[in-house]
């Protein structure tokens, strides 16, 4: 059959008889047995002593094929060992000349499965496989597949489209893995999207495969970075920024200096990676990071595009935002204003660079976004005033009070605060703010937004129900632009800490009616996160409220499959909670006593 042809492919070119020659012999002879004997003598192992040994093997019932196969396997192993030895001995030019000669002799047999490993071994040890041979390999799918990654690199570096075809499924897999974590049904404030350490994340399958595919090849590394930039521009998906940083740090772990020394972001990423590991930017590292940013020389501004992408990584943003909130709390204790803290200003500078990554790469205008004064002189002091209100309330509650009534928690939000948040503004709602500020707000709200959201995450993590309910109306009205799946993933996780509050009508009305359900009408991802939360906490919610939520969250025809699937899971859980008819009505007594059957425990 045609498959048999490959077993002997290329032998004729070397003047070695193959299966076809044997067929020719047998069809053109008068005595087939003699013809076979002659063929065996001419093509067998030419060793005189063997003519006595082979009949001895025949007596033991050992087939000739088995004997020849074992000799062949032994010789091939010896040849492979010899190729490996040649690759390491003598002068460089000489050893590669020997390997090239061997390749020339053996390449015609590359399709023979039994000889292919030898050819591939020669390929492996040649630093540069001849162009002609690479083209032949590239044109044959099976040969290309059989090549070691070291050989494929030589093919890829001059064939971006082929390399793109290899990398593309890995990038899709990476994004899918990230989204699976964000949309996972497991909700916990202890284990969330940001829990795994940088080192653990770099052990992921995709990062490891890409690292192996790149090896020490700068050209391939640059290609992958170009793919990531292009995809980030096309989709605005920030997970590509994470992969950009993880890939560089994976090569750093392996000490691939050939790449690390030529990537201008290496030292900055290395330092930031240490901060991400600690989830905090300390003073020493802050000075180091500032040194890198200040050290961008004239004419080298393009590096800011890469640095901004590294800073746009959600893990970097998370670290910078957490550090900002911590700094603001420290400043309250020190009685210091934000503008007087160089460390805080650096964090804002890096947040600004990260938030501006897409615009910078899109416009190809490489300069740091201008830091607007109002963010520092108005918005952050307002945020600090919330921290002060909170401290004051806590202290007031502990003081002995002559009046009987409980001290109310401050419930209003200063108008100036909501002004900084994205969303529609009512006419005349900011009488104390100038027109320039309004213009600034329209253009620059991302950082105020990010810090505001992280402050909300901070107070929910502290189980601070009062502060959360105070800011919730602003969250529903103004933060619409900023609701990423990452924020909603973290918020739902932190809300599990307030699980006991879900039994209270007032809390549920504020949370669901005032925030989640109004947002659901605007964005489908809200449906998903509300359903995740209810799957986790449905047993805490008052039955009447749960029923109305179930109705409100019913998927429409337009809803995605994932939302429908999650809704069905929730409905099944709620069905199991309903009391069975036997529990509701009394069972009439029967004359014979029946053994009691335990009812299934509600889940």
Automatic annotation (TrEMBL):
<dbReference type="Pfam" id="PF06209">
    <property type="entry name" value="COBRA1"/>
</dbReference>
<feature type="region of interest" description="Disordered">
    <location>
        <begin position="577"/>
        <end position="603"/>
    </location>
</feature>
<dbReference type="GO" id="GO:0034244">
    <property type="term" value="P:negative regulation of transcription elongation by RNA polymerase II"/>
</dbReference>
<dbReference type="InterPro" id="IPR010405">
    <property type="entry name" value="COBRA1"/>
</dbReference>
<protein>
    <submittedName>
        <fullName>NELFB factor</fullName>
    </submittedName>
</protein>
<dbReference type="GO" id="GO:0032021">
    <property type="term" value="C:NELF complex"/>
</dbReference>
């Amino acid at each position: 059959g045609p498959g048999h042809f490959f077993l002997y492919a290329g032998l004729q070119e070397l003047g070695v008889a193959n299966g076809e020659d044997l067929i020719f012999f047998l069809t053109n002879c008068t005595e087939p047995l003699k013809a076979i004997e002659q063929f065996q003598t001419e093509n067998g192992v030419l060793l005189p002593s063997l003519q006595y040994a082979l009949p001895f093997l025949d007596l033991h019932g050992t087939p000739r094929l088995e004997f020849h196969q074992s000799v062949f396997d032994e010789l091939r192993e010896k040849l492979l060992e010899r190729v490996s030895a040649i690759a390491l001995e003598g002068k460089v030019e000489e050893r590669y000349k020997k390997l090239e000669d061997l390749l020339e002799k053996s390449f015609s047999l590359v399709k023979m499965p039994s000889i292919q490993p030898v050819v591939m071994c020669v390929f492996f040890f040649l630093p540069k496989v001849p162009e002609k041979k690479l083209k032949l390999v590239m044109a044959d799918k099976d040969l290309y597949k059989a090549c070691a990654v070291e050989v494929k690199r030589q093919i890829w570096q001059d064939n971006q489209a082929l390399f793109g075809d290899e990398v593309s499924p890995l990038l899709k897999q990476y994004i899918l893995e990230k989204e699976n974590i964000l949309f996972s049904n497991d909700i916990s404030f202890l284990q969330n999207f940001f829990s795994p350490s940088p080192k653990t994340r770099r052990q992921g399958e995709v990062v490891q495969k890409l690292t192996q595919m790149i090896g020490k090849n700068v050209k391939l590394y640059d290609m992958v970075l170009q793919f990531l930039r292009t995809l980030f521009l096309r989709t605005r998906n920030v997970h590509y920024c994470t992969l950009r940083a993880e890939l560089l740090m994976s090569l750093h772990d392996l000490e691939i200096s050939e790449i690390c020394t030529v990537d201008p972001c290496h030292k900055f990423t290395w330092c930031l990676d240490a901060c991400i590991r600690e989830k905090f930017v300390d003073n020493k590292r802050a000075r180091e990071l500032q040194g890198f940013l200040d050290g961008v020389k004239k004419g080298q501004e393009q590096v800011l595009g890469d640095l901004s992408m590294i800073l746009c990584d959600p893990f970097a943003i998370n670290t910078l935002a957490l550090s900002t909130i911590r700094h603001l709390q420290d400043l309250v204790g020190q009685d210091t204003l934000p503008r007087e803290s160089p460390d805080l200003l650096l964090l804002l500078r890096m947040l600004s660079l990260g938030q501006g990554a897409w615009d910078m790469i899109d416009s190809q205008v490489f300069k740091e976004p201008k830091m607007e004064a109002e963010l520092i002189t108005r918005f952050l002091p307002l945020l600090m005033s919330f921290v002060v209100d909170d401290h004051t309330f806590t202290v007031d509650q502990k003081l002995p009070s002559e009046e009987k009534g409980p001290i109310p928690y401050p419930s209003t939000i200063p108008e100036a605060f909501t002004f900084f948040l994205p969303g529609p503004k009512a006419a005349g709602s900011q009488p104390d703010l100038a027109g320039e500020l309004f213009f600034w707000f329209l253009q620059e709200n991302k950082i105020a937004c990010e810090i505001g959201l992280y402050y909300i995450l901070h107070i929910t993590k502290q189980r601070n129900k009062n502060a959360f309910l105070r800011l919730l109306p602003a969250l529903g009205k103004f933060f619409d632009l900023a609701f990423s799946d990452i924020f909603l993933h973290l918020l739902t996780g932190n809300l599990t800490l307030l699980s006991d509050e879900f039994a209270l009508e007032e809390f549920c009305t504020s949370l669901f009616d005032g925030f989640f359900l109004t947002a659901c009408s605007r964005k489908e991802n809200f449906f998903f996160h509300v359903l995740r939360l209810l799957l986790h906490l449905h047993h805490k919610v008052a039955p009447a409220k749960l029923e109305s939520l179930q109705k409100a969250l019913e998927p429409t025809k337009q809803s995605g499959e994932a939302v429908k699937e999650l809704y069905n899971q929730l409905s099944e859980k709620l069905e199991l909670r309903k009391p069975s008819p036997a529990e509701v009505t009394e069972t009439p007594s029967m004359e014979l006593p029946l053994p009691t059957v335990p009812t299934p425990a509600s889940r």
